[in-house]
Fold each of these.
Amino acid sequence: MIELEKNYNPAKSEEKLYKRWEERGYFHAEADPDKKPYTIVIPPPNVTGQLHMGHAFDETLQDILIRFKRMQGYSALWVPGTDHAGIATQIKVEAELRTKEGLTRYDLGREKFLEREWDWKEKYGSRIISQLKKIGCSCDWDRERFTMDEGCSKAVREVFVNLYNKGLIYRGPRIINWCPNCITALSNEEVEHAEHAGNFWHIKYQIKGTDDYVVIATTRPETLFGDTAVAVNPEDERYKDIVGKTLLLPLTDREIPVIADEYVDKEFGTGCVKITPAHDPNDFEVGKRHDLEIIKVMNDDATMNSYAGKYEGMDRYECRKAMIKDLTDMGLLVKTEEHSHNVGQCYRCGTTIEPIVSDQWFVKMQPLAEAAIKAVDSKETEFVPDRFSKTYMNWMENVYDWCISRQLWWGHRIPAFYCDSCGEMTVSKEDITVCPKCGKPVRQEEDVLDTWFSSALWPFSTLGWPEKTKDLDYFYPTSTLVTGYDIIFFWVSRMIFSACEHTGKAPFKHVFIHGLVRDGNGEKMSKSKGNGVDPLQIIDMYGADALRFTLVTGVAPGNDMRFPVTYDPPVEKGKNPNPEVNKIVGAPGVEASRNFANKLWNAARFVLMNLETDDYTLPSEDELCAEDKWIVSRLNTLIGEVTRSLEKFDIGIAISAIYSFVWDWYCDWYIELVKPRLYNKDNPTKLAAQRTLAYVLINALKLLHPVMPFVTEEIYTALYGEDESIMVSKWPEYSDKLTFSEDFAETELVIGAIRAARNLRTEMNVPPSKKAKLIIVSENDVPFRKGQAFFEKLASASEVEYLNSEEGITGNTVSQVTEGAKIIIPLDELVDREKELERLNGEKERLLSEIARVEKLLSNQGYIAKAPAALVEKERAKGESFKKMLSDVEESIKKYQ
């Protein structure tokens, strides 16, 4: 045994213990035919990232599961790694290049710029890994992966070429989401929509050869230069006569036809719709049906091009303002109507996206979705909670083709090679330099793949696919994916259809969905609001265990959690915190968790100081006293409950049960119940008490270890020595043999009686030091007689009298009914009657005075008329409270008379 220090010091223990675990290889997993596999792949954080509270929450949940399964005897593998994060990383590097050197990526050229990207990855990529270690993540660091490492890159090429050869990847013109700031295409899932106040501009389009005109309404007048038709509904009687006629396109010298198409809603707006195939997805489809010209009127940075005439070079919004003025001056603007509508924004930078037509690479989703739908329908993959399967299925059943090309340099370059000599395009798993058709030089596609393309392969690419590796055969499919509900579309769905297509199996059995970590007011944490909380700061303040415990306390699958903090100076009501001014000085929830760790630590110190044996096995049933069997029964129940809860991902329920057991039953009750045996050297059951104390503590530590790995390891090694580790110890198992029903029930009766006696003493303000007679009235007093010593020690009983009925009890008493008995204490035993009567009568006079004051105040009509309503209501509430207190005092006085 090793003596524990007086106070637990997380800063002193955590780094030391983590290093020891790493050095001993406890995190490493191997394919072991004698063990069942349990696999989790980490949602790879961005290499540019820094650990935020969402990461801490997500990784804590994963670590709990992996530690739990490791202790259960599984070959538990947690694969770590990072994502190259195409747009995010390129933006960072470009910004640094611009601010420090005044250069753009084009100044460097692709090759030199990518060298800078890799330098950035090497410099910052390890930062988040060290932060994950700080929180206690027991990943197999020997297997750390990166989405652009050699193996993952090979998998990406394999998948791309296979899908292309099957006709499931194609290149062609489509309307895509374009970010003018990031200068790249975005998938639908990378566009966030928000309600914005805008306008409908009603504009006249003159019918050629007449003075008549039609009126169209648009929220994006700057796209007018790309109009190639105006459409009406073929059933709209108002416009039947103009179908086929020609319109003069305002501000241009072009003419466009009027066409009929059922796409037009004749009840919406004017019933006339401008058709701009290059800048609207619906218009694009109309254009295909009517063979309309596609005219793109903007450059990649959302400035206007030559089709905009005199507005060329203007930003799209600058152009809008100028042309509205010109339309007004020309008498072509009929009216401007306020209109609130959903606007798509880039998920990365917040810039309003521009729908544009562009040649891009796409994945045909419909054929791939079928197997992915079946995987969830058949329960090959299950969502926890199940309600998120509906979210997944809705996306899969209404899926669009996925735009996978990005106009970036950092990422997996698309393996397509063009021959400018003969026009041949070759898609190849290996780089080629000459055209296989004509032998002339080729150039590779400039675009890279969407980051999510490589992330979609993560569960199997990290295990060696496309090679048939031992790891892939043993650890795949993986067991559990832990992730937030906000990336079901981005990532979860894509992993499932990719795995089904390329491995023939769903990538994981369970998808454990958790919510978001919000601030104390329920707001989403964000840089713009200044309400983010750095988990590393919280760890420095309270330790990793306390943070981990807080993050999973009360949490239910799929639900958000709140993380309140205190600031100095306090944040003004209704305002966001300013990180430069409002400094985080505390986190109430984490402080409570730290207190729990301290409670456990102090209990362990007590046990260690009272141990005279290193035999921590449970004594035989004959050696155990009733209170020992009671706590062992409670522990046994706890083991079953915690194990079942963790298996069902009800981690919050498991934590609550452990907390109650340790704090209430073990520390506050069992330790107190066995103290008399520990302190009596002649007590023959002393050794059994010591061994039971240690046995229960050790098993409670094991149950708690997945959540609080550091403090539990520190205590465990104090008991067993530093050569041992709780991390690789055996998980406790429920046993019917360890449920001692009769002794448990009898001890529960005794504890209930002690509680009742304590409650009575508390109500009478009697200090623990004052002894008083205790009367226990029960038809069966045997269990209570067995607990005689406990009543004297824990209920401050001077003596205990056992009766079968209340007959013969005289004088004033106080009583409380508990299970199996009525607990009675004579009043004279508790207080000096005369002094208490004097105190109570004084309190009565005070309350009568207060009631009279309030009634006088409330009868004053002038006060009622002038005082704020809230203040009047407050006084009324005070009056009612005083009356209730007076009633209680008068009832107490009767007891003493």
Amino acid sequence: MQKLSILLLMMWLHPILTMAQPAGNIRGIVTDGASGQPLPYVTVIILNSDLPTGTTTDESGNFRLNSLPVGRYDIQTSFVGYEPAVFKEIMVTSGKEVFLEISMLENYRELDEVMVRPKVNKEAPLNTMALASARMLSVEEANRYAGGLDDPARLVTAFAGVSGGLSSNGISIRGNSPTFLQWRLEGMEAVNPTHFSDITGIGGGVISALSSHVLGNSDFFTGAFPAEYGNALSGVFDMQLRNGNNQNYEHAAQIGTLGIEFTSEGPFVKGKQASYLINYRYSTMALVGDLFPDLVGEASGMRYQDLTFKMNFPTQQAGTFTVWAIAIKDHFIQREPKDTIAWMNYFENYAELVGNEADFWQTKAVGGMGHRIFVGEKSYLKSALVANYAQNKTLGEVIYPRHNWERYSVIDMKNTNWNVAFNTFLNTKFSAAHTNRTGFNITRLFFDMDYWLYPNLYDNPGYPLPDNMVNFTKDNGSSMAFSAFTQSLFRLNSRLTANVGLHGMYFLLNEKATIEPRISIRWQTFPKHAFGLAYGKHSRRENTDYYFIKNPLTGELVNKNLDFAKAHHFVVSYDYALSEHLRLKIEPYYQYLYDIPVEKGTHLSLINYYDFLQMLPGLVNDGKGENYGIDVTLERYLHAGYYYLLTGTAFNSRYKDGNGDWRNTRLNRKYIINALGGKEWKMGRQKQNILSANLRFTVQGSEWYIPADEAASKAAKNVVYDNSRAYQLQFSPGLQCHFTVGYKINRNRLSHEFALQMMNITSDKEYYYGYNYRDDKPELQSGTGSIPNLYYKIEF
């Protein structure tokens, strides 16, 4: 009788205990991948649940799975006439709902003729038109991979064919310049959304301004991309901002070494569909430096903040409207050390001791309005009006400690570029075998620049300065750019898919035009094997202000007639699904670049352009380049608590300069090897908490450089480069190691996370030339150490 009473008591308590266990929800929408229409009555099941768990979508394609114990889940959707789809590695926590957007492809033939292997979301990009050299970067990966510091630009350097640096998050794809990459937000070309972009090298920055709290899943293209993408030579990073939760209010706060931020989202009105999402971040070091100036020292000189928001307004008849923006404000302060005695002793051999101090301000913003509306049952029209703004301002002074710290201005530069663009395209699914997307883009471009420079900026001047600053250029102007595209995806049979497209661009200022054919084919030879072939011609317009640089004597626009830089991309791919959780991908490629702007009679080419202070007068389209190599990826998806990603690239990258000589490109690293992985453990009495550890190793060839001319440098008391030997020497290769350790505590409707991210724990170095005044000679110097980010985050 006593045992029976205990059993009845346990049965009565079980629902209460179950309710007390921290849980979360998964919501989402299922749509037709070609037409975008929602799919009703789709079966949605969890594949790795202890108990059978599932649901079906409603008439609007929405589904909801409530009260799931915290942990990771794989979700499969199935529907008659469609290929099943699997979403892997979905993390459910107690502090935030998960929202999924799942697209399914209609079967081309009858069911008995169709391959039944489900399509895994990690195997293909979000853009169904892309058949080669494309990879989806999920928000979950962005939070998990080591070495990224939650920066998507640093995270993608783990992908095959992609390299990056330590001091800069510039993305080099297959040896190309980081400037050849196009950034996109919400489907539109955008300014580089990075703090201090270009200050550590053109095309890169220090850390992304896009928080992982607002970023949605995104696509990353490394070559031969579809026809809808233009004005890019190497690749495209097509990023999306996610929508805020339209049913419940959710918030998050995070404080860490790199920043203090707060995120809020929810419906504007409970029970309605409109939602908001907003995130603000401020640099921790700047805040601590204001409060305790002696505690962090020079680190407080890097001051930054950013604001991101997105508002989503679905309507019954007029479609869906979005309003979004990201704003960035940076200030970098460089000051000479306060210990003037030690500093002056370093220069004891020089009567005219000269110091340098500078301020760099950067303000950037991109934002716009978007609209999407269905046109009948097979088409949708998507349009956007977007504005980009970027302003750099630099002030520099030389100081003379032995002359009562007198100061002379040597740099006063202000450069502003902005544009307003309108884009629209019509997507039509004619049948299960044919989908077309056609659209156009109109951009109004503006610039305003005012450059005051000391005539011999890089010389070591005597005292006093013999000259004043000279107004190198002061001008403003505008022009317009037009582009249009059309592309069709053909499913020729259940195994063979082709994408054929055409992209065209026209620049009004110099009346230059280009037509770019694109074609790609994917052949699913067997359920686990697929081959691909892709070709694309790609072109790129330079920054607007480049075209308005004048000859100081004649006033002539020396770069006005610059043509588009162009490239042919050829890609072959092989995909092999070794198992349900393991995938191998191999991609050989060849790229031929031509009409690259170079300076006649010198080594200078925009392929290697690095210094944003360097002027670019008199460029001509005589440069060429070529990149060829092979990318290999072996990836195990997170399953049974662990994952790994192994990538390797062997390649060669060279260019033809203004002398007609072929040279190594600066980023011709020759090889890149990445190995990263991680493990998760469930902790706590109810296994509701998660301990995670992630590790990454990178071995890669270093950059090529221009050696110093020692005799000329000694004469100038500054580094003078031997340009006749440009990029003939290479720095020593390096080994980088990064790790992340985190612990997430889940409580009812609340989660806490503590994490330590360490970048470059091997203290790998980056090298540059500097002048050693004590030894009176130029020498290679090194910089960059380990970068820690310790943070605490709460979601509720």
